[in-house]
Amino acid sequence: MKDEQLREKRLVYYQEDVEQIEKLLQEFLKLSNAKAIFLIDKEGHLVSQEGATETMHTETLSALVAGSFAATKEMARMLGESEFSVMFHQGKRDHIHISLVSDRAISAIVFDEQTTVGMVNLYAKELIVKLEKIFSVASKRINQEHKMEEGYSESVQDRLDDMFKE
Amino acid sequence: MQINYARKEISCKLVYYGPGMSGKTTNLEIIHEKVPDQHKGEMTSIATEGDRTLFFDFLPLDLGQVRGMTTKFQLYTVPGQVYYASTRKLVLQGADGVIFVADSSADKIEENLESLRDLQANLAEYGVNIEQIPLVIQWNKRDLPNALPVEELEKKVNLFNAVTTEAVAAMGEGVLSTLKIAAGLILDRLNAKEPGAAPSAAAPRPVKAEEPKKEIFVARVNADMISKTYFNQYCQTQYRLSSRTDDVEDFKKFSVDEKKRLLESLLNHALLLQDAKKRGVAATKEEIGKQLSVFARRFTKKEELDAYLVRRKLSMDNLTNEATKNVIIAKMISDVIPDLSDRVKITEAEVKEYYANHKDRFDGKPIGEVKDELVARVKAKRKKSLLDEFFQILREQAAIEVFEQNLS
Q: Which residues in chain B are contacts of A2 at CB distance < 8 A?
């Protein structure tokens, strides 16, 4: 892989984008009455979260959502579909609604009996259109150079050493 | 990899690959066991009844803030068994680096090779060349009686000249060193030189007519880039506001050293304003108006102020921006230095000392006559040093980069 390709694969989120995203997610929660929402990139890294997420293992949840979405995509491919854009898991108390946001992110919405899957679906569709707009603007922006401070890599390795000693 | 400037966070994906039973999950388990709680999340395993990985194992590591960026590694393992080929491929998506855990046993050579070629093919499906991605091969199970010598493994299995390590993962040996090397390889790439980005003596590349003019930046303060245009405007305004004369073109003669000094103050202000934004500190209209009226007191009539602005080629906007900045700075100072009023209390002795050291500034007037001015100066000095202290703290946490070659 050339360096240039590698840079394109980096997902960079700037302050202004994330601020807009957070606002949209908060709005969505108000409208839909869902418990929590996560925006996750397709590689499984969490981008943003809103709502009652304190008790959830958000990092792990993000990895699992991205993994299960990838698996679903593979299922779709085998059936001759390009992608299933929405997934829904129903539980006894909590449910999760997962949908694709443009080509780079996934939204995962956790909700309970305070609302219905129909409501969630309705507002999620609106939300996704808005999010896609933000992503499209962001992706057109000239990719600014993002260099880390000198010695960053070494400092990370030192930190790993310390962690194992503690 | 995700770089999130809003959360000041870097998140990398590292995948443990290799044949079945080579010790990939064991690597993760050891890391999970040794790393203190505040640095790790829950380890998750999607496994079959036989305890073999079905989809992936996952362990999030949070290294905390490193040089201003919260640094995270998401560790994944793939299922080793041959028949889980499709899930193996899925886990590789977006991987920033791979640790290939090889079994050192003499009878596992073929399995190692098969898995390595499988890795190569799966990466290729994502458009990634195995020789280009950060790859570390871990020769695991070095304690086995039938373990092949490392030289032989290198020759037979290390097809792509990867960095290699030795391990007995089950005993915890070599697990950290492998992880460290992989982390280093991944992060070193972040600062890999951009082709053509470094100033060079080579002829500039021809610019296509439709290519928009590229903005030149003088510095980066965290996520904010400071353009040369903005910096020049800043210098100009500062000069026009503070110059003793009305010769407003003087700023063009600024030396590089002066520009550096101005850039330093701009960086401090940018940092402070970023911090203010995070804390929700903002200036109200009334506060800005009050600050402006303090400035306007220098003039007896509105016409005088207007004439001053014209002479200095300044606009009301320039003044308003400056006033806004000053209000926010004042608010931030009282916000972050809560005991400010105590700390700027000065003693008689300090005033006397200042007077003694700066006698020439007071035209030989006795101390009693210039007491008020003296006190104000000593206070201002103290305030400035408190502010500098705060700037120092901000700067230590910030990611600041200056492109000096663009200053002149």
A: 132
More confident residue, B250 or B27: B27
How many Å lie between the alpha carbon of A118 and the closest alpha carbon of chain B? 31
Average pLDDT for B139-163: 94
State chain B's mean pLDDT as an integer.
82
Q: Measured between CA atoms, how close is A152 to chain B, in angstroms?
A: 6
Of B71, B74, B91, the CB nearest to A45: B74
Is A18:B7 a contact under the CB 8 Å cutoff? Answer: yes
Cβ-based neighbours of B134, under 8 Å, separated by 6 or more: B96, B97, B98, B182, B185, B186, B189
Q: Are strands B217-221 and B400-402 parallel, antiparallel or unpaired?
A: antiparallel
Q: Could you give the 3-state DSSP secondary structure of residue A136?
A: helix
Q: How far does chain B reach from its first CA to its final CA, in angstroms? A: 35
Query: Is B376 among the domain residues?
Result: yes
Give me the sign of the Cα torsion angle A1, B53, A69, B83: positive
CA distance B214 to B211: 8
Residues of A in contact with B177 (CB under 8 A): none
The first and second tokens of residue A80, run together, are 């001759």
Residue B367 lies in a domain: yes
Identity of the residue in A3, A12, A43 whose CB atom sits nearest the CB atom of B3:
A12
CATH number at residue B236: 1.10.4030.10
From chain A, the residues in CB contact with B35 under 8 A are 163-164
Which residues have a Cβ under 8 Å from the Cβ of A9 and sit 6 or more positions away? B1, B94
- Give the closest-approach CA distance of A119 to chain B in angstroms: 30
With respect to residue B290, please indicate whether it lies within any of the assigned structural domains: yes
A164/B35 touch (CB, cutoff 8 Å), yes or no: yes
DSSP assignment of B127-149 equals T--TTTS-EEEEEE-TTSTTBPP
Q: Taking CB atoms and an 8 Å cutoff, what residues of chain B touch A42?
A: 93-94
pLDDT band of residue B214 (cuts 50, 70, 90) is: low
CB contact under 8 A, B69 and A150: no
The span from the first CA to the last CA of chain A, in angstroms, equals 37
How far apart CA B359 and CA B97 sit, in angstroms, is 66
Average pLDDT over residues A35-63: 90
Q: What is the reported pLDDT for A49? A: 93
Domains in chain A (CATH in brackets) are 3-165 (3.30.450.30)
B293/B273 Cα distance (integer angstroms): 22
Query: Predicted confidence band at B196 (pLDDT cuts at 50, 70, 90)?
Result: very low
| Two tokens, residue B292 | 């402006």
